[in-house]
Amino acid sequence: MNRIVISTGGGDAPGLNAVIYSVVKSSLARGWEVYGSKSGYRGLIEPDELIRLTADQVRDITSTGGTILGSTNKGNPFAMPVENEAGEILLRDISDRIMTNFTRMGFSCHIAVGGDGSLEIAHRFAVEKGMPVIGVPKTIDNDLEATQMTFGFDTAVSTATEAIDKLHSTAKSHDRVMVVEVMGRDSGWIALSSGISGGADVILIPEIPFNIKTISRKIADNELDGKLYTIIVVAEGASAEESGKIHKKTEQSEIGRQELLLGGIGEWVAAKVRESSGKDTRSLVLGHLQRGGSPTTFDRLLALRFGAAAVRMAENSQFDQMVSLVNGEMEAVPLADAIRERKKVPLNSDKVMTAREIGICLGDY
Prior knowledge:
Helix content: 25-40%
CATH class of the largest domain: Alpha Beta
Largest sheet: 7 strands, mixed
Number of helices: 12
Shape: elongated
Strand content: 15-25%
CATH architecture of the largest domain: 3-Layer(aba) Sandwich
Number of domains: 2
Number of strands: 15
Distance between the termini: 57 Å
Radius of gyration: 22 Å
Structural class: alpha/beta
């Protein structure tokens, strides 16, 4: 083991640079060379997009958001969009080209940092092409199986909580209902955690279909108690009992599947609440604010631990595995287990019970 390559794929998340820093420093301490592949696999498609990562290049990046390598959710090498002479977009498998470049450059290991889409691609390279791959879990949604936590989640929750905190004063000033839409895809981890922490009255998550009448009843109960405003936090993947998910359009995912581009549920809920309760109701979409900024202390430390653990796994030739946080410690788990399905909020979890017991409405009863 003397030369490794690291890539960051999928959506960006606070803590990516901390992983890169940790991988580089841990590798250099072993006398290894480290290269970074820009924008996912682009550096392994066009070697000019590979950069040698030195201690000088990663100095002071631990606290910065984003990724110095860039990222993409459109670069699946097994189904790469290519325009032909007729102007048609065709999907081509260029995985063999990547393997040729990987071998020619003398790489001993690929550390793939990403969410379920990126890690599924990495797993395919390991199984179908024999690439020595190690995965590092990254997603603000915290929806990856086989790990207690992914870095980026804590920062996203902190950003959402701060926004909810600030909405209390303006909602109270105007006796309004404020609806805050947060990210999370089909899992309610961000909405539930930020909603409880931010003192929301109603939290709507994908795991629990909601009823507008139930929400209106909570608003009326607030007013009977002398609270003339209401804060509603809704996950982008939440849906009402009588309707499906609200989405903007359908788009091709990182791994080539057609998936819904979620968005609009906040305004939909606001309109229904306005109609049902007669209250002045406004909506706010936090969107990509949740992906930006410096990582929190928790995410920074977790990302550094993930990076160092990935290098230890490379040293021990633990390939087609993912670094995982298990009972507070770093462990290697099969990539296949990590990507099997997205992690949902258990309905009997402590967080759900806590929300109900402190009087938060989850939209079902």
